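Lab meeting, item 3. Inverse folding demo.
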């Protein structure tokens, strides 16, 4: 017998709370930190958050797709981690723009920085989509498993097993795409830093306090 639909919507359910926090995460969009303590550039420090949490979210999502039972146990934690990772991308990008303006690099380094920034924007859009699909997949897992929310439109859209399967496929595609982009962003950023140092060989510390490469 099909599970009865709740007469009232429980807005405290994890799916709704996670959705709310995901929207709150966009409040970091205008945060712009050029430097922090003692003039240290903020970008090299802020990027550690997405660099750690994005791969963790991607691997966790792939594990949950491979073993759907993990969604029941770790779905809330995984989606929460993804939301924090998403929110951390925006201030890291803003700090990167501020650092780019301060460095005033030219030539090959400037080109790599431009490509690094462009790839970061693609990653941001892709990971926002990944986070949204992850929350929807988590909700579909619970709803299609016999735990409806009571919110009619949500239950109708996510209760069919076909919806759940389709969301899992999209989640895998986005996870793979985000994994590739986080690697590409990091690779371009590292190459740009090295090129920036090469521009200042023999001229003392480079822009932003970067020392020249060892001779």
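The presenter then showed the designed sequence:
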């Amino acid at each position: 017998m099909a599970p009865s639909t709740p007469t009232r919507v429980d807005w405290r359910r994890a799916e709704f709370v996670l959705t709310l926090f995901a929207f709150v995460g966009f409040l970091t969009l205008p945060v712009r930190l050029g430097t922090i303590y003692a003039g240290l550039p903020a970008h090299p420090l802020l990027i550690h958050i997405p660099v750690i949490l994005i791969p963790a979210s991607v691997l966790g999502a792939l594990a949950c797709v491979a073993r759907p039972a993990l969604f029941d146990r770790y779905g809330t934690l995984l989606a929460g981690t993804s939301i924090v990772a998403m929110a951390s991308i925006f201030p890291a990008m803003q700090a990167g723009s501020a650092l780019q303006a301060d460095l005033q690099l030219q030539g090959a380094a400037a080109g790599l920085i431009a490509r690094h920034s462009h790839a970061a924007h693609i990653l941001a859009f892709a990971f926002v989509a990944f986070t949204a699909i992850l929350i929807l997949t988590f909700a579909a897992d619970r709803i299609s498993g016999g735990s409806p929310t009571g919110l009619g439109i949500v239950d109708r859209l996510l209760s069919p097993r076909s919806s759940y399967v389709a969301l899992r496929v999209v989640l895998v595609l986005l996870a793979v795409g985000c994994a590739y982009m986080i690697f590409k962003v990091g690779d371009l950023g590292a190459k740009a830093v090295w090129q920036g140092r090469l521009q200042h060989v023999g001229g003392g510390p480079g822009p932003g306090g970067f020392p020249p490469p060892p001779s």
